[in-house]
Amino acid sequence: MKSPTLILLAAVAAGCSTLTPVDDPVYLRMTDIEARLIRIERLFDNESLISLASQVDQLRSDTQSLRGEIETLRFETGNAAERQRDLYLDVDQRLQSIEQAQAAGAPAVGLSNQFVTGNQAQPAGNVQESYDAAFALIQARRYQEAANAFASFMTTFPGNRLADNAQYWYAETQYVQQEFTAALAEFQKVIDDYPQSAKIPDALLKVGYCNFELQRFDAARAALQQVARLYPDTTAARLAEQRLQRIAQEVG
Q: Would you tell me which CATH number, out of the four given (3.40.50.300, 1.10.1060.10, 2.40.10.10, 1.25.40.10), belongs to the domain 178-252?
């Protein structure tokens, strides 16, 4: 049964048109609107909103995971031009070339001045600004300053949604400065404290790398094999397999 409003509007529209209701676009449009309203009412009736809310939560989780992957890509490709010869080598070799460029006084490439000026990060008020300021420092290859910024972030914003990323990049600052024992402990914190983090594959990979540098080859092999087994068809898995081949060649 048509609603009184629809009937009234149809009557008005019919009085202004010589078209039949079937051909009248106004009438057809109102009919379509009412049909859509009926479908919306049915959504409420069958509690589909609960399903929609679940889908929204899943999308938020996926978005956070994608953000982590994008950050990793930004870090790995930020200086691609000067590190072209290392493109097909593993991550730690590329990071060593960054350190060589830093020692030679090479300027940072592609770094925004929005968060970093002079020798210190600009004060940042909210969570995202503080995180971005710290990340800008690591992009600038100012690793000790980045370490301090990420440590400050984790102290100021404990339990924040970016805490796992901050912990990972803090560990990375130790790794690129060849503080492998310290880096190993910090990467392990990502695994232990944030078991749902999208950074787990990369953190586990770096656990293997750190053990390799410390000549703990059995531990390195175990961590790298775990990456390849648990996260197949990922960049972390491919890098783990490359390092396993290197261990087999150099250690046996």
A: 1.25.40.10
